[in-house]
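Researcher: Structure prediction, please.
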Amino acid sequence: MKKVIYKGKIKLSEVNFEKNASMWSFHWDTQVHLLTDSFWRFWVKDELSIISCDHLKKYNYNKPEINLIGKLNDLLQEEFLIEISIVNYNDLVLCFTNKKILKIYVNSMAFENWEITIHGKEYICLHGGDGITPLSDF
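Model: Predicted structure follows.
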């Protein structure tokens, strides 16, 4: 199953990570906003590039911690978001130019997994990937 919820061409404005809430936020102009604390992977031309679990980890005492915000900004600075779709169990897939893909995986049976606003229309992914609900339904 694949349901396309966005098609367009916009550039990333900002990526943030709120450490206390373990929450990622992604913003594309004023058109698309994404919040998630779910596990995600970033692919470049069918190869795994970065994984959210590595953010702020330190694998070697001589090196600084891994900062995925900087890596995401580098990977996406020249790219356009061209499609957003919902796939298996409500995983969210964001496609960019040059075969770059951000996949956000449902990883909680107890909490909402992601929230996205597209042109003012807000959606949340229900816990366990049970469905997509417009926030206005609450």
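Model: The mean pLDDT is 84.
Researcher: Thanks, that helps.
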